[in-house]
Amino acid sequence: MATGPRYRVPFRRRREGKTDYRRRRALLKSRMPRAVVRKSSRHIRVQFVEFRPTGDRILSTTTSLHLRKMGWNRIGANVPGAYLTGYLAGKRALAAGIKEAVLDIGLAHPHPGGKLFSALKGMVDAGVEIPHSEDVLPDEERITGKHIGAEVEALFVKVKENIDRMTGGGAGVAAAKPAKPAGKKTSGTPGTPGKTSGEKTAKNATAKKEA
Predict the structure, then answer these.
(1) Helix axes 79-95, 150-166, angle to 10 degrees
(2) How far apart are the C-alpha atoms of 105 and 86, rounded to whole Å?
């Protein structure tokens, strides 16, 4: 370890190889929530994170394990699984009021068409606005799992439909109550319709003729 009067000890997470603070600062300048995508050998995790001076606040968390309830029984760390995880995360983010974000892939090396950008595609298709280039997104055949097999492609379509059904639009929107009819003016007794000046004049003229 270097020493000397001008040596400055790096931050702990930088020493551990967990955080690139220059990249983090660039992301924070956007003043938008971060769509944090991380991968392991078997799973994908997507979190929407908001910066706070006292520490980052996690707004929403979705992992590929959550796809099991939607019917996905394949590995979560492949391209179709990453897309579905991002799609579910995007739907949950919209339900939480998050409409835009900036992508955060951490220290991972970006590979166009890879799993991280497959998750990005899922979030974008769900309706979350995330700045990106179309060149980094995987093609449709890899997203749907057609390159793996027809069985995976059919399962992909089914799970995506399940996500749409379980996080369907219109949830939480209250139906508008019918407006009450405007009350009429009364003359004397409440609830009795009032008479117009024309009706009163006609009645007086009829009374005079009868007299």
Answers:
(1) 10
(2) 13
Q: Dmax of the chain from CA atoms?
A: 121
Q: pTM of the predicted model, to two decimals?
A: 0.72
Q: CA–CA separation, 38 vs 106, rounded Å?
A: 8
Q: What residues pair up with 129 in beta bridges, in sequence order? A: 100
- Average the pLDDT over each of 10-14, 20-24, 136-140, 154-158 and give the range with the smallest value: 10-14
For the chain, count helices (H), then strands (E).
7, 4
Helix (H, G, I), strand (E, B) or coil at 209: helix
Domain boundaries of the chain, sorted by first residue: 13-166
Cβ-in-10-Å burial (0-12, 13-18, 19+) of 90 comes to buried
Q: Class of the 13-166 domain?
A: alpha beta
CB 45 within 8 A of CB 38: yes
